[in-house]
Structure formats: structure tokens, C-alpha cells
């Protein structure tokens, strides 16, 4: 470990518009102190500074995942959870559940209707009856890949006291069969009825899992993440990791007090904000604002859309209130509450009608109480009305896209919204052309946090299904896509003067890759490895044994 380091003899892509590319970079005291050619930068190094010959390899600013549920992703590992992402049919689901880790409950994650053959062809549907045959009396909760519904067995329903007479909670639904009995699928806030009962790992297990997960991210060249749902207990976990010197990525936390319910009342939000030290933290761990929810997700027909779904309905907002007008007023008040307290808001929004409502609320809050450069954010922005792009640019509202959802969610989305509407999802090209600041993200554990696949998707490389491919006019060039994982997230964090580029004075967060991600072919890009990842001048991942200091 060192905080002084000279890297020379490579290609340094600074992503700084004035500096351009270089061949060497010098870091000291946790910051970049010099960038340029080998001779000039080497001359600036103090005697005895550890030096690495890059051997032509490429240096990029550290990768920043703008929307990654770090702790959730850590607890989705095999020691805690059954991974159902690759289950191609119910037989594979059964085998995975038969091998579940020991414990009172079975917890699983990652199933989709379109990847399990019997669900995709309509010959079966997720039901508690099938799950009962496999899991018996052991309560079981299986999280959908989207994290917006769960599939549970009868034992779990019994533990939660859910019967045919149980009313649907606000902003949630207990799916029922023709006789009115629960099917075992709980949507949106209804998840909380069961999820709140599942025993949680111990503090040490949580912290150890999070530390291991940060190490995995470091190996991908990741040095920063934004965790978008951080309740008070998780904030304390992060503080404990920081105090113990175990944070190997920078964490920006978005506070949220109600999950798995997406609904937060304006009154409750005001009380929570007034009782929280929002200025806590430093460059390694800080509060970046709050997370709110406007609507659900298209795959569950809970995104609020202008056009109806094929099966009917438009979805709805998930804010408190009875009916659209009340819910819209509550959305406006939620954003106004934060605006008045100068708290940045990132809003989960996937439907175009919901996005219009959120931008209306941001504009109203700014008109009532101007806050220049607030940098509120739409998370996902899956479907956006054409008129909203210019409004986003005018209000300085950013968008966090989800290229990896585009990569893997195509079949599920097309099944619900059709190919034409899906082709318009996550319009990064249009947003950038309108001057909107965009960052990209994995939303792990909804997907795996592989930024390389995200970059490949937005630049037009073929993906795992035909619905992931962008038409030529919607593609980004390679550097534009990489900026969505570096400079874009830094701007949304109000941290562009500290990270996102490799310029003197910036934090010394960087990754050395065995090939140039800007020019590598699609296949080579997906195989690019970070051979060295540096956080604040300290080496946090070093892959090659022969990549030694010289």
C-alpha cells in the first residue's frame, strides 16, 4: 500500500477536456499531482517514489457506478441467498432451492418470468402451491430480479398472517386467484409484509460480506458507488466499515427510511430530515441526498405510463394519496420539502407519465424556492416523453440510466410494452444531445455490476438477446459511454472538482487496464481486466503478480 505512486509508459486517458491524453501520471498524498509525458512527470516525482512501468497499458479514472445497492448485492451471495438468475426452467429452480443455505428461511433472488421456460410459454405461473411442494414448511421468499415483487410459499404467508381477507397495503398488491386466495406473489409495498420477518445476517456477517464485495468491485476497476437506499441501520454499517479502515470504494449514500415500502409521506420525510445530520461524512463516505419513489416498474405494470398497457391500466404513482390528483400533490410536496432544506433528491421513475410529474414537481419547487445548481436526478428514466428532454436540461436535472437492464431485461420488457416502446427505453443519446448530464449504473443486485457490458450495450455491441441492440442513431461512441461511468456520476454527486477525471488536484482514483477500453473491439472490451486499481493513491486491487513496483 502506498499513497505516492508514479505510473509511466502507458496511455493515460484523463477525460479532462483540457489535458487530453498523456503517458504518465504522478499521485501523492491521495491526489493527482502531475499528468503529462514520461520525462516531465518523472522529473516531478520525489526521490524514491514507487514507480510502475505501464508497458503500454491504459489508465482511466476509477469507475463510478451511480446506482448500486452495495449492501444488498453483498447479501445476495451464495452464503446467504439462492441465485435464480440462470434458472431456465422449474426443474432448475427446484435444484437451486434444494441446495439452499441452512437456516430458518430460504431466501432467493433473480427469477424472471421470461427466463423460466414454463412461465415464459404460459404453461405455468409463479404460485405458492408449486413452491410448497419444493420447500414444505420452511418459509421461503424469492425476490424478483427487479426487486419490485417477491414469490413466497404458504409458510411465509402464514408467518405474515396474510389471508384472503388481508387488504392490499398502500402502493402494493397481494395477487389473488379466482377464489380470492393469495397466489404467493406480493408486489411493491406488499413485499414488506413478509420481507420484514426474514432474519437478518449478523453485523459481522454483513460487514464482512460488504468488504468482500467491494474487493470484487475493485477488481473491475470500480472506485466509487452510490448506494441509493440507505436506512439508518445501513448508514451505521458503512460508518463502522469506515472507522475500521475497511472501505475500499468511495460510498455516496442516499438516505431512505421506508424500504421495502416505496411510499414516504411529506410529513414523515420532513421529520426524518430535520433529525438527521446530513452533512456527515468525508470524501470516502458521505450522504449525497435522499431517494424517493415516483412509480413502480414496467414489468409489473406499475410504472405510470401515458399509453395503457396491453392488458389495460396505466400504472400509477406510489406516493401517498387517493387517486392521481392527491398523489401528484404529495409528490410535489415531497420534492418541495427536500428543496427547502437544500437536500438533493434522486427519484426512482420509470414511466413517461411519472417522469413528467417529477419534472413538474422539480420546476415547481425551483420556482417557489430557487436553488441554483441543485442537481436533482431521475433514476432510470426508462421511458421519457419527447418534450421532457429539454426541460431536464433547463432545470439542470440529471438522469441515471440503466444500460445493464437494457442488456438483460429486453424479453421481460417486450412482453409487457412491445418492441416499439422498448426501443425507446433509456434514451442516453437523446439526453446527451439535449445537454442533460447522464450517468450509467448497474442497479446491482438487479443485474451484475459489469460496466463493460453496459458500455458495450450503449455503443451498439450485440448482447445476450436481440432486444438489447440499439439502432445506430441511438448509440454512443465509446468515450461518451465511458464518461457515463466516470465524469457523469461525479457531476451528479457535485464532486466533479474532486473525481471523475485525472487532473492535478483530483483524488487519485484510477484503474490500469490490460487493453484500451476506448478502442478495444466489442469482445475485447468485455474481456478487459483492471490489473491495478488505486483509491486515493492506495492500491486496492492488483491482479497480475508480475505487475510489480520497479
Automatic annotation (TrEMBL):
Residue ranges constituting the Amidohydrolase domain according to the UniProt record: 52-540
Enzyme class (EC, first level): hydrolase
UniProt xrefs under CDD domains: YtcJ_like (cd01300)
InterPro entries per the UniProt record, alphabetical: Amidohydro_3, Metal-dep_hydrolase_composite, Metal_Hydrolase, YtcJ-like
A GO molecular-function descriptor: hydrolase activity
Pfam families: Amidohydro_3 (PF07969)
Entry EC number(s): 3.5.-.-
Keywords from the UniProt entry: Hydrolase
Annotated protein name in UniProt: Amidohydrolase
Organism: Amycolatopsis speibonae
Amino acid at each position: 500500500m502506498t499513497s505516492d505512486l508514479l505510473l509511466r509508459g502507458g496511455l493515460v486517458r484523463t477525460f479532462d477536456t483540457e489535458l487530453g491524453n498523456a503517458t504518465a501520471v504522478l499521485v501523492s498524498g491521495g491526489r493527482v499531482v502531475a499528468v503529462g509525458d514520461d520525462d516531465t512527470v518523472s522529473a516531478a516525482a520525489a526521490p524514491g517514489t514507487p514507480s510502475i512501468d505501464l508497458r503500454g497499458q491504459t489508465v482511466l479514472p476509477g469507475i463510478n457506478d451511480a446506482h448500486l445497492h452495495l449492501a444488498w448485492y453483498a447479501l445476495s451471495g451464495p452464503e446467504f441467498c439462492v441465485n435464480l438468475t440462470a434458472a431456465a426452467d422449474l426443474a432448475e429452480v427446484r435444484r437451486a432451492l434444494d441446495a439452499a443455505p441452512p437456516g430458518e428461511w430460504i431466501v432467493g433472488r433473480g427469477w424472471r418470468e421470461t427466463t423460466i421456460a414454463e412461465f415464459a410459454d404460459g404453461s405455468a405461473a409463479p404460485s405458492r402451491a408449486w413452491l410448497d411442494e419444493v420447500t414444505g414448511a420452511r418459509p421461503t421468499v424469492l425476490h424478483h430480479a427487479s426487486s419490485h415483487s417477491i414469490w413466497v410459499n404458504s409458510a411465509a404467508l402464514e408467518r405474515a398472517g396474510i389471508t384472503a381477507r388481508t387488504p392490499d397495503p398502500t402502493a402494493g398488491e397481494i395477487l389473488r386467484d379466482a377464489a380470492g386466495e393469495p397466489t404467493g406473489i406480493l408486489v411493491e409495498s406488499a413485499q414488506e409484509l413478509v420481507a420484514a420477518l426474514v432474519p437478518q445476517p449478523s453485523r459481522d456477517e454483513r460487514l464482512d460480506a460488504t468488504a468482500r464485495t467491494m474487493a470484487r468491485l475493485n477488481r473491475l476497476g470500480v472506485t466509487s458507488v452510490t448506494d441509493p437506499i440507505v436506512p439508518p441501520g445501513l448508514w451505521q454499517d458503512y460508518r463502522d466499515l469506515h472507522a475500521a479502515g475497511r472501505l475500499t470504494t468511495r460510498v455516496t449514500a442516499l438516505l431512505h427510511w421506508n424500504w421495502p415500502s416505496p411510499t414516504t409521506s411529506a410529513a414523515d420525510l420532513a421529520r426524518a430530515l430535520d433529525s438527521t445530520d446530513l452533512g456527515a461524512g468525508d470524501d470516502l463516505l458521505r450522504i449525497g441526498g435522499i431517494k424517493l419513489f415516483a412509480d413502480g416498474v414496467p414489468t409489473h405494470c406499475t410504472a405510470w405510463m401515458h399509453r395503457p398497457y396491453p392488458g389495460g391500466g396505466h400504472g400509477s404513482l406510489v406516493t401517498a394519496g387517493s387517486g392521481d390528483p392527491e398523489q401528484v400533490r404529495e409528490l410535489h410536496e415531497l420534492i418541495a420539502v427536500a428543496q427547502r432544506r437544500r437536500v438533493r433528491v434522486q427519484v426512482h421513475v420509470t414511466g413517461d407519465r411519472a417522469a413528467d410529474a417529477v419534472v413538474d414537481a422539480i420546476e415547481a419547487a425551483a420556482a417557489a424556492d430557487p436553488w441554483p445548481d441543485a442537481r436533482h436526478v431521475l433514476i432510470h428514466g426508462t421511458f421519457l416523453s419527447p418534450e421532457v428532454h429539454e426541460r431536464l436540461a433547463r432545470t439542470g436535472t440529471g438522469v441515471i440510466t440503466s444500460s445493464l437492464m437494457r442488456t438483460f431485461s429486453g424479453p421481460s420488457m417486450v412482453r409487457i410494452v412491445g418492441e416499439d416502446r422498448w426501443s425507446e427505453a433509456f434514451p442516453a443519446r437523446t439526453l446527451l444531445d439535449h445537454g442533460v448530464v447522464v450517468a450509467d449504473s448497474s442497479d446491482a443486485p438487479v443485474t451484475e455490476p459489469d460496466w463493460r457490458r453496459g458500455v458495450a450495450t450503449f455503443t451498439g455491441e450485440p448482447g445476450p438477446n436481440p432486444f438489447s441492440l440499439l439502432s445506430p442513431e441511438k448509440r454512443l461512441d465509446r468515450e461518451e459511454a465511458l464518461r457515463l461511468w466516470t465524469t457523469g456520476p461525479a457531476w451528479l454527486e457535485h464532486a466533479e472538482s474532486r473525481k471523475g477525471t485525472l487532473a492535478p488536484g483530483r483524488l487519485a482514483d484510477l484503474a490500469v487496464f490490460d487493453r484500451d477500453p476506448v478502442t478495444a473491439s466489442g469482445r475485447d472490451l468485455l474481456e478487459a481486466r483492471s490489473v491495478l486499481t488505486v483509491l486515493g493513491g492506495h492500491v486496492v486491487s492488483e491482479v497480475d503478480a508480475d505487475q510489480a513496483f520497479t
